[in-house]
Amino acid sequence: MTKSNHAININLYEAKTNLSRFINRVQHGEEITICKKNIPVAKIVPLFENKDESFIGCAKAFVASVPKSFFDDLTESDLPGMGL
Q: Which domain holds residue 36?
């Protein structure tokens, strides 16, 4: 593994063995380059720069970005606007 300014290079075996750990690092802003025989072949980068957003969706070509407040509890004043 090689580090340089929030980016690291790892070999393919290391990526397969520790993928969950590397995904966690990416979620905290690091970029990871995966190498095969010391040649870069792929890069894992964060999807969102804003930590206040999440993504939802599982359809092949659909991912929606929503603010964290989307998951807050509804209040009585929210219900009439929803036809409830």
A: 2-71
